[in-house]
Specification:
Layout: H1 2-29, H2 32-35, H3 37-47, H4 50-88, H5 94-121, H6 129-144, H7 153-169, H8 185-196, H9 200-283, H10 289-313, E1 319-322, H11 323-332, H12 336-339, E2 343-347, E3 353-356, H13 358-374, E4 380-387, E5 390-397, H14 404-409, H15 424-431
Parallel strand pairs: 2-4
Antiparallel strand pairs: 1-3, 4-5
Length: 432
């Protein structure tokens, strides 16, 4: 899961860098000459017609939007990535996080890009009301997306582009000039010509209506992303609650079964003690030379069973046994008729003695092997080898593997991809 998140973050960072590069290259492709804006303004004056001038205004809005949109989208991604970095180091206050990332980053990045463009091309981007509103759009989008922009980049970008496009239309509205809109050189020329042609009201109405439609669409998109993320959060909450409920039910069943086993095991100690006592008495009887040997076998078997009972009753109970003996015990739990010959063993020589709870460790390794077989493995190889003075037990299979998401959660109790209790691998981790 962590690796998946790192890959996603890396892709977002590369995309953000590409957007800033695009911003710096845009003036070479998108400019007044390529859009023919000056030609249309001159034509409008020559024929005294509003049509070419209105066309020039539309082209100016499109040109400005294409030029600056990559800058604001890049600022959106950079601010989001830095917000995540602060979240990872447990930044002290949400207010501080808001100030540093959502507000400060776009406010510094956008003017810096404008300054670089002016230094390279001599083109001065007007940093007034449309730019301020566009920065506010980036800030608002970060807040409503709850710093999940890299996961919902398409939706967040749609909001930013629509609102930035809408604010650019206000640059050709003569009535808003005193409020800081349309102070660029070309915007001023269009407004002057519109005044000469008596088309000021037309540009006021046309610019405000176009801006209003785009801003309204942007706000609707913002509302959609808020509702969408609320539904996602609610769905995740419900899913997590279902998992928790299932885990509690599984743990309750497991606890009840464990108590019953503990009671049963405890009850076994009484007849086991009797068997051990009788075996000892039989061993002292000399009337039959074979009886002593049989009694000794019974006594040894009773001692092994007593050790198993102790291990089942106490997780901390351990005994020292040869690793080869443990391997034989494990193999006895995996007969060929059960595994259909899919499980093979490789036991090295000169293995060390180990101090383990044999009963629980056998069950843990069997759980791993069962998990491999249940997941579609055609061959499972169990290898016993040394690692210095330690024993290595390796369970190797040729199955399809496990996804990164499942790998991050497979040790959780109740989590399963096969509709099981989800307790097998949790038990393995507890034993290890």
């Amino acid at each position: 899961m962590a690796r998946l998140q790192q890959n996603r973050t890396a892709r977002a960072a590369l995309f953000g860098a590409a957007l800033f590069v695009m911003s710096l290259l845009m003036p070479l492709i998108v400019n007044v000459e390529t859009f023919g804006i000056t030609t249309l303004i001159i034509e409008s004056l020559e024929i005294l017609s509003v049509g070419p001038l209105l066309d020039a205004g539309i082209r100016l809005v499109l040109m400005n939007t294409l030029r600056i949109a990559p800058t604001y989208l890049g600022a959106l991604i950079v601010a989001d990535l830095i917000t995540r970095s602060f979240s990872n180091i447990e930044f002290k206050t949400r207010l501080g996080e808001f100030a540093v990332t959502s507000l400060l980053v776009p406010t510094l990045v956008v003017p810096f890009v404008y300054w670089v463009i002016e230094s390279f091309y001599g083109i001065r981007y007007d940093f007034r009301m449309p730019a301020i509103l566009s920065i506010a759009t980036v800030v608002a989008t970060l807040r409503i997306s709850r710093t999940e922009t890299t996961e919902s980049l398409g939706k967040a970008s749609l909001i930013v582009i629509q609102l930035v496009f809408g604010f650019q239309w206000l640059d050709i509205v003569p009535a808003l000039t005193s409020l800081g809109f349309g102070h660029g050189e070309i915007s001023q020329d269009i407004k002057v010509v519109a005044d000469l042609l008596g088309a000021t009201s037309l540009f006021d109405i046309f610019g405000i209506v176009a801006s209003g439609i785009l801003i309204l669409n942007g706000l609707i998109s913002a509302k959609f992303i808020v509702d969408y993320q609320e539904r996602l959060r609610f769905a995740e909450y419900e899913r997590q609650r279902s998992i928790d409920m299932e885990r509690m039910r599984s743990e309750a069943v497991l606890a009840r079964g464990y108590r019953e086993i503990q009671t049963l095991v405890h009850d076994l100690k009484t007849p086991l003690t009797t068997i051990q006592g009788l075996a000892s008495a039989m061993a002292e009887f000399n009337g039959n030379s074979g009886m002593g040997a049989h009694a000794q076998r019974i006594s040894c078997a009773a001692e092994r069973m007593d050790a198993m009972i102790q291990e089942m009753m106490s997780e901390s109970a351990r005994r020292q046994i040869p690793a080869q003996e443990f391997a034989k015990r494990l193999a006895s739990h995996l007969p060929e008729e059960k595994t259909l010959g899919l499980v093979t063993f490789e036991v090295a020589k000169d293995l060390p003695d180990i101090l383990v709870n044999q009963t629980r460790l056998v069950r843990a390794v069997v759980n791993l092997i069962d998990n491999s077989l249940d997941s579609g493995a055609k061959q499972v190889h169990v290898q016993f080898c040394t690692n210095g003075e330690a024993l290595n037990i390796k369970v190797i299979d040729d199955g399809p593997g496990i996804s990164e998401d499942a790998l991050a959660r497979c040790w959780e109790g109740g989590y399963s991809t096969k509709n099981s209790t989800g307790l097998g691998l949790m038990f393995v981790k507890q034993v290890v």
